């Protein structure tokens, strides 16, 4: 993918079949679906791909045991099917993770055991492996660092794990493979209308400040937590449909739990679900669930969230983590869909919702990463009818994503590149200076910076250190220490000067402070 080449398409195309606004999981999934059906597809993202919620998940592809507990069987069944399809179509990006539910009360073993058997049953032929109950001794053998006091045993089950922003980039490249056009740092600023119906969008390039008027048969709003802002461009008095809930995570060193088995606590003291999950040689601990007033691009964790995560992680680990042990902290905001004027949580849907305005702005809201493909299928099916497009069938159930490669393992830090790793290796072999990690506490190499600039439309330092690599999310302090190194490599590839390097480093270091306690 080359951003300059993508932008040229704006001047070369008179009218698109579909313009998709939003470059997160929902928008990128829709773009892949539309482009793979053969529609002339344009995606516009105001910032970078997966800048918002889609890079801030718990890194799980799962059915959602909490929804099973709530009795939402349809959502769990759909998510488990999508989990299986995603593993089939992108084995280089989706790994299997063994989870342990520790039992400290007499009733927990049979209760969670039965629930997880239902989970297995709902997964059907796309299941990973069967859940099973463990004795206390077997449980400690799985996770020796588990708190032993009052431990009775545990229940094992399996789910999927992934790198969210890397899947987002893979979807972007898959869309491009099918002749779709995607442009980051191109915010939509208004709607074009003809006879009261939307006929396209107004947009501006954040880098050059050039303005565009872009025509299309239909426009899809897939902006997640910012969906209401796009709807107000269409209808100034549009009713608020999105409710926002913040979830925060902390990152710890693997020394706190050296096992490859993750911990899932289905019911903490205040009713939340807690995960302690190995990820990229670190531990992800999350998540929280706090209602917030409005969406924001860079949410910050509240002190109560940090204390909650530290306290509850300490309940299940022999070694209690302290604030000084937190390598990074990040927050994401869930886009929950209000289905009535009542804002009570019981009225807030965890499913995705698709609706059209009187002027035919098609909006898709809600959902989660695991079901992105089905969300995309549903919204493009609706778009075909609403915008009277030539009907083409969805093919994404069997569509292998860009870089498809079997027999990869998560311990291989390059597994996220799939078959592209061969080209990175070739690039590195031509220049041995590119194969030394930029920081001793991170695995990322200079060659990955070059690759992201050349092929993944990274144009700012944050793009590299936050989303093309996960440096910022794994170790905020280390990411600050390699900022200048990465910026100099980028500057050489982009033809930028010393002033650009200084400005990028300054901006990134300011941002990174939000990820470090």
What does it look like?
Helices cover 36% and strands 23% of the residues. It has helices at residues 3-12, 25-36, 65-69, 73-89, 108-123, 136-142, 164-177, 227-234, 303-316, 372-387, 421-430, 446-455, 461-468, 471-474, 476-481, 483-494, 498-512, and strands at 16-21, 41-44, 60-61, 94-103, 132-135, 153-162, 181-183, 188-194, 197-204, 211-221, 242-253, 262-265, 274-279, 282-286, 290-292, 328-338, 348-349, 352-356, 361-366. It folds into three domains: 3-53 and 166-238 and 357-398, 3-Layer(bba) Sandwich (FAD/NAD(P)-binding domain); 79-162 and 243-337, D-Amino Acid Oxidase, subunit A, domain 2 (D-Amino Acid Oxidase, Chain A, domain 2); 415-515, Helicase, Ruva Protein, domain 3 (Orthogonal Bundle). It is built from 17 helices and 19 strands. With 517 residues, the protein is an alpha+beta fold. Strands 3, 4, 5, 6, 11, 12, 13, 14, 15, 16 and 17 form an eleven-stranded mixed sheet that branches. Strands 1, 2, 7, 8, 9, 10, 18 and 19 form an eight-stranded mixed sheet that branches. Mean pLDDT is 93; it is low at 341-347.
Beta fraction = 15-25%
Largest sheet: 11 strands, mixed
Compute the number of helices. Answer: 17
Number of domain units: 3
Task: Indicate the CATH class of the largest domain.
Answer: Alpha Beta
CATH fold title of the largest domain? D-Amino Acid Oxidase, Chain A, domain 2
Separation of termini? 36 Å
Number of strands: 19
Alpha carbon gyration radius? 23 Å
Shape: globular
- Low-confidence stretches are 341-347
Proportion of residues in helical segments = 25-40%
CATH homology-level superfamily of the largest domain:
D-Amino Acid Oxidase, subunit A, domain 2
Question: What would you say the CATH architecture of the largest domain is?
Answer: 2-Layer Sandwich
């Amino acid at each position: 993918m080359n951003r300059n080449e993508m932008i040229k398409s704006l001047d070369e195309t008179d009218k698109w079949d579909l313009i998709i606004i939003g470059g997160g999981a929902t928008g990128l999934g829709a773009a892949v679906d539309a482009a793979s059906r053969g529609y002339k597809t344009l995606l516009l993202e105001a910032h970078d791909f997966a800048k918002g919620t889609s890079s801030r998940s718990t890194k799980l592809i799962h059915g959602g045991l909490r929804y099973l507990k709530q009795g939402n069987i349809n959502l769990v069944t759909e998510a488990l099917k999508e989990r299986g399809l995603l593993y089939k179509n992108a084995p280089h990006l989706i790994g299997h993770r063994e989870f342990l539910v520790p039992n400290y009360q007499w009733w927990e073993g049979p209760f969670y055991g039965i629930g997880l058997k239902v989970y297995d049953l709902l997964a059907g032929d796309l299941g990973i492996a069967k859940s099973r109950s463990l004795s206390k001794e077997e449980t400690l053998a799985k996770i020796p660092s588990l708190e032993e006091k009052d431990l009775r045993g545990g229940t094992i089950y399996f789910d999927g794990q992934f790198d969210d922003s890397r899947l987002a980039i893979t979807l972007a490249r898959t869309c491009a493979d099918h002749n779709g056009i995607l442009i980051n740092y191109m915010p939509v600023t208004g709607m074009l209308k003809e006879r009261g119906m939307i006929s396209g969008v107004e947009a501006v390039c954040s880098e050059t400040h050039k303005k565009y008027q872009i025509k299309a048969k239909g426009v899809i709003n897939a902006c997640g937590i910012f969906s209401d802002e796009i709807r107000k461009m269409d209808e100034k008095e549009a009713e608020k449909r999105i409710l926002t809930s913040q979830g925060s995570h902390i990152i710890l060193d693997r020394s706190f739990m050296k096992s490859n088995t993750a911990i899932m606590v289905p019911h903490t003291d205040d009713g939340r679900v807690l995960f302690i999950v190995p990820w990229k040689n670190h531990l992800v601990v999350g998540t929280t669930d706090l209602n917030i007033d409005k969406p924001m691009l860079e949410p910050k964790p509240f002190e109560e969230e940090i204390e909650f995560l530290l306290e509850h992680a300490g309940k299940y680990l022999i070694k209690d983590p302290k604030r000084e042990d937190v390598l990074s902290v990040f927050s994401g905001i869930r886009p929950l869909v209000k289905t009535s004027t009542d804002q009570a949580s019981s009225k807030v849907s965890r499913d995705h919702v698709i609706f059209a305005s009187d002027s035919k702005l098609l909006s898709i809201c809600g959902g989660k990463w695991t079901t992105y493909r089905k969300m995309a299928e549903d919204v493009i099916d609706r778009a075909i009818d609403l915008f009277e497009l030539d009907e083409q069938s969805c093919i994404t159930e069997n569509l292998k994503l860009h870089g498809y490669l079997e027999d990869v393992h998560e311990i291989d830090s390059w597994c996220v590149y799939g078959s592209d790793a061969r080209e990175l290796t070739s690039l590195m072999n031509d220049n041995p200076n590119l194969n030394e990690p930029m920081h001793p506490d991170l695995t990322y190499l200079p060659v990955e910076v070059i690759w992201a600039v050349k092929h993944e439309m990274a144009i700012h330092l944050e793009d590299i250190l936050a989303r093309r690599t996960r440096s910022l999310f794994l170790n905020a302090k280390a990411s600050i220490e390699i900022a200048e190194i990465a910026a100099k490599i980028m500057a050489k590839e982009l033809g930028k000067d010393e002033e650009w390097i200084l400005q990028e480093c300054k901006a990134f270091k300011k941002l990174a402070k939000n990820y470090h306690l």
